[in-house]
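For reproducibility, we list the full input for the glutamic acid complex.
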Amino acid sequence: MTAPPIVRFAPSPTGRLHVGNVRTALFNWLFARRRGGTFVLRLDDTDRERSTEAFAQGIQDDLHWLGLNWDRLERQSARFDAYDAARGRLIAAGRLYPCYETPEELEFRRKRLLAQGKPPIYDRAALRLSDADRTRLEAEGRKPHWRFRLEPGDVSWNDLARGPQHIDESSQSDPVLIRADGSYLYTLPSVVDDIEFRVTHVIRGEDHVTNTGTQIQLFQALGAEPPAFAHLPLLVGADGRSLSKRLGSLSLADLRQEGIEPLAVSSLLARLGTADPVEPMSSLQPLIDTVDFARVGRAPARFAEDELRTLSQRTVHGLPFDTVRPELDAATAQLGEAFWLAVRGNLARAADAADWGAVVQGPLQPVIEEPGFLADALAALPAEPWDETTWKAWTAALAATSGRKGRALFHPLRLALTAREQGPEMARLLPLIGRSRAAARLRGEAA
Ligand code: GLU
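The corresponding predicted structure, in tokenized form, follows.
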């Protein structure tokens, strides 16, 4: 029996969540929930200029809206001591070394190598500096940036989504882990945290595949066993083109504003590009039960906003009242389950239930087409109590007395009672409207 997994979703709070990074969040969360594991929300906020508290809060709101709760919340900005300690260990082990080249010098060398037809790999000139060289450079006011010394050779791992992978580290420049201003790039803090939080599975987008070889060497240099990795294909637009430029307009905040159902977002993003069908769901459970990296295809997953809108509408049509209740305004929620079940099949968005709430509760100016027939209908209106059989009993009696049927029978009643041409089943609406409002509307009075 394997131990329950520990996973992390690690967004940088430099923007709101969008459909691309939500997919990563979902796979982490679903995997943790399926296996009884732990889902860590890690805010990668070491970039203090671009990270904001508002975005950090926004990301948490977005995850709450989706129903993705976390078991632990960590912020990298509170963990610099841990990163500094790891830096010290890597320096002592000779794996992190100071470099003094300016960006211009590096660019010049890069171009020269390319001109010679060689790969533009950093030449490790800084490793050949003597103590005296370093002292002189620092006396000139140069501040070092720090590179991680890669071990040559292949790094391989069995990616849970992509299968066996290997990266030849000899073909990579030693990566910069710490900038000249002393700030950390993402790589070292991420690995330090993954070690300390005992992360067992790193699940993320395939744009991180190329970092993985370096990260595996970092785990090893810090004396830790690397976790398992699953790199998911990126989302692309319906036209097969990259979404990266459009992601700004595909934020969860915008989708929420538009009235898209959170369950539709989850159902689509968790199933897109997998062997399982995209279908409306009334809870996250079916997604938990079926999440499986082996069922994720290798091709990019195509995201179409139209598909999301259609799925959202179909999702609303099947939503249980308890699920939708938090999304409804207080007045609509208070109309209860019978009301919701009556109207949900006619809604494009859950919030539109409020319109039918107004129809049921009034005051509403009825539309009177045939006053004579409506007077007969009023006279035949059954006594309370009313339930969902009342409409049938009433209209059957009216059919018998008036000889009307079909549209001639039902349409004037619907118009008078709801002032709308179409809508939810009258059998369900009528008891919600209630006898006194129904009677007033049949008389042509606003009620
Ligand atoms: N903050 C990184 C990102 O958003 C995390 C990557 C990772 O999961 O390792 O790209």
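The radius of gyration is 31 Å. The chain has four domains: 6-77+234-317, 79-232, 319-361, 371-442. Both points were considered when choosing residues for closer inspection.
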